[in-house]
Amino acid sequence: MTTHDVSADLSKLLMGFRVSQAIHVAATLGLADLLASGPKTSGELAEATDSHPLALYRLMRALASAGIFREDDHRRFVLTPVGELLRSDVAGTQAPMAKMVGRPSNWQAWGDLLHGVRRGETAFNHVHGTDVWAYRASHAQEGEIFDRAMAAHTDRFAAAVAEVCDFDRFPSVVDVGVAMARSSPGY
């Protein structure tokens, strides 16, 4: 019988924000796309992304420890199956979601979760002075990043829904989830 270390499990969860932010940076820099053609050193990746070589090496090592990349014997990095999903050109890509979750607007709002729980207010509204939809409408880049993330997310689940639901009797099917969510004041 093996002993399960729940302390290690909790520590991993507590530090999860670091991994999530590292994945966000990797997606924003397009590292998985750069590695799609084969192994590269952190120096090559740093040059391609206009990044600091040593800082990028540390990021790559951290992501290798999380299973996103793997470092070979020549200090080059390669994609793992998990890292493949950060490529922008693959089915099921999660790169748009990774780019969104680490954005300052999202990061700051989650950082104020305690306020939201104590006061019953939306943390995003408290931090940014407006609701998330108005914020994205007035910050075009944030809205575009969100839309790309939702589109990629929807693509991933649409195939699963189509497999289990028989839509043959309907002439058309429309997903109105985004319109409903944007009009709901409690969302």
Structural write-up:
It is a single chain. This protein is mainly alpha-helical. The protein folds into two domains: 6-84, Winged helix-like DNA-binding domain superfamily/Winged helix DNA-binding domain (Arc Repressor Mutant, subunit A, Orthogonal Bundle); 103-183, no CATH class. It is built from 13 helices and three strands, in the order αααβααββαααααααα. Strands 1-3-2 form a three-stranded antiparallel sheet. Helix 2 packs across helix 5 (53-65) and helix 2 (16-29) crosses helix 7. The radius of gyration is 20 Å and the shape is globular. Mean pLDDT is 90; it is low at 178-187.
SSE topology:
Elements lengths: L5 H9 L1 H14 L1 H5 L4 E2 H8 L3 H13 L3 E3 L4 E4 L1 H4 L10 H7 L2 H8 L1 H7 L3 H6 L3 H7 L1 H25 L12 H7 L4
Antiparallel strand pairs: 1-3, 2-3
Helix pairs in contact: 2-5, 2-7, 4-5, 7-12, 11-12
The neighbouring-strand order within the major sheet is 1-3-2
The proportion of residues forming helix, as a percent range, comes to: 55-70%
How many β strands by DSSP? 3
Number of helices: 13
Q: What is the average of the pLDDT values?
A: 90
- Listing every helix as H and every strand as E from the N terminus to the C terminus, the arrangement reads HHHEHHEEHHHHHHHH
Count of separate structural domains: 2
| Classification by helices and strands | mainly alpha
Major β-sheet annotation: 3 strands, antiparallel
Spans with pLDDT under 50 lasting ≥5 residues?
A: 178-187
Sum up the overall morphology in one term.
globular
Residue fraction in strands? under 5%
Give the CA-CA distance, first to last residue: 46 Å
Q: Could you tell me the radius of gyration in angstroms?
A: 20 Å
